[in-house]
Amino acid sequence: xxxxxxxxxxxxxxxxxxxxxxxxxxxxxxxxxxxxxxxxxxxxxxxxxxxxxxxxxxxxxxxxxxxxxxxxxxxxxxxxxxxxxxxxxxxxxxxxxxxxxxxxxxxxxxxxxxxxxxxxxxxxxxxxxxxxxxxxxxxxxxxxxxxxxxxxxxxxxxxxxxxxxxxxxxxxxxxxxxxxxxx
Length: 183
What we know:
Helix content is about 80%, strand content about 0%. The protein is mainly alpha-helical. It has one domain. It is globular.
């Protein structure tokens, strides 16, 4: 508990003492992460599929080293073919969770922004980018846009922002308890 409060105190202190630097760093991180997402989105199906397959085959070899699974034969096992889809959706969630957290951090640095908007803006921005991302994929060879993926991305954003809300609420509660004990 004390470590969590100390980390959050340091984060808030840095944001308050160096507001322009804090905002600048976070905005640059958002832009870089959007570029990473769009780069992955712009890859054709062969490149994207091979990356997912490598991760899957690597996981199988880690969990079951004696399994005779290769890049060539994993699609013949239905469970592995399904697991590849799970890996792809998990990657989507991770990408958009990090994006939401970065945008939330930018909003956190805007002192005059009402607190509720710090939780709404990341989800709205993520939803817009997810739609753009899926629309972009319709122009790429072997790829297609999916409303399901947009839903996955928005869900990841809502979960991340909800966790940020719960953690900041917990931080405020712990902070008030330590102030009460100090008095």
